[in-house]
Write a structure and sequence with these properties.
The protein contains five helices and six strands. With 157 residues, it is α+β, with helices and mostly antiparallel strands.
Amino acid sequence: MAKSLSKASEEYVELVEKVADEVGIGQYVAINVFDMNKSKKDVIKIKKTSVPMEVSLDGEDMIDVYIYEKAFDLTDDETKRMWIEGALSQVAYDMEKGKVILNQEPVISLTLGMYEKYKNVAIEKAQLAIYTIAQIEDKEKEEKEQAKANKTKKKKY
């Protein structure tokens, strides 16, 4: 992310807030929107605001949305909304803890060259990689739980 930031234009602040309300997180989080004056790879990025509790509004969780306005200015409204919605999809509200969290869901990483060569097949294979890793993690978790249960059984006897 670029080092130089400025407050985003009112147009983009309003658009981000509107999309946040549409996807249902606007009621749970206060949003600060900044312009990344330069960027080499990200058009939008989200981070949880790191401010002391007394600075936040009424104890409300806060997130910072960084957009690259130069890139946004070159696209149509549908693309802007999709970029914002995609970034905001990382934000979730944990009802048990009563706070906003940023999901650490896997992200598909794909070079433009691979996409141009293989089109949707490249996306499907990237998804398959994520699903495969999830299956491995689930299996390892099951094995760990089973080993723990077996250990507990042995101690009882």
